[in-house]
Amino acid sequence: MGFSFELTGRTALITGASSGLGTRFGRILAASGAQVALGARRKDRLEALAGAIGPNAAAIGMDVAREADIIAGFDAAEAAFGPVDTVIANAGVDGAGMATSISEGEIEQTLAINLKGAILTAREGAKRMMAHGVTGGRIVMIASITAFEPSPGLVAYAASKAGVVQAGRTLAREWARAGICVNTISPGYIRTAINDAWFDTEPGRKQIARFPKRRLMGEEGLDAMILFLCSDASEFVTGTDFVLDDGQTL
After folding, report:
1. Which position among 5, 25, 74, 157 bears the catalytic label?
2. pTM for this one?
3. Sorted alphabetically, which PANTHER family does this protein's record hold (predicted)?
């Protein structure tokens, strides 16, 4: 029996969709047939992306650090397309800074967006799936290889992503009998707006040179896994973290 990553009939809400991986996720889910609600703070960028994707995309302004925004975002997604059955909790900031110099406010912001925001997004999605009687719900939370690797200069970010991995496992267990699969992806280093300036510096180039393949990943490296985890083909996969890092942690 063959498997398909066809997503026609699915409605997905994607956070952090105004740039980087979130933009990529919106495009590939829509190309596979899903209706996509694109959530982020920069609504002008979302509107441009939704216009490029077409009528199966909607721009939704939301700040995942605020539960009221998340609730309003799901309301807007439902108004546009009906109940959401697929969620990608992707919004994040890098929170870069050495532990002795990063401010309390920067730590709080990083944890609020990367960890609290991911949990609240997943929670709101699950609550609505249960309320609407959705079967085959899918939630994917984006973590990072920094969840497992010591990452000087990224203490708040790494801690937040380690929290995302454990949150994903715990939520998968809580919602298993509701038929909601929850999984996490821990990508390696991919050049995006969040890290572009760093990898153009001499230390950044040295970091790349230390990787076994001496390169950064391309954004397309997550495509197949994202489509799999959002599709019916992943029915028996939940509570799992997938490290996709081009061998960077070897």
Report:
1. 157
2. 0.95
3. 3-OXOACYL-[ACYL-CARRIER-PROTEIN] REDUCTASE, SHORT-CHAIN DEHYDROGENASES/REDUCTASES FAMILY MEMBER
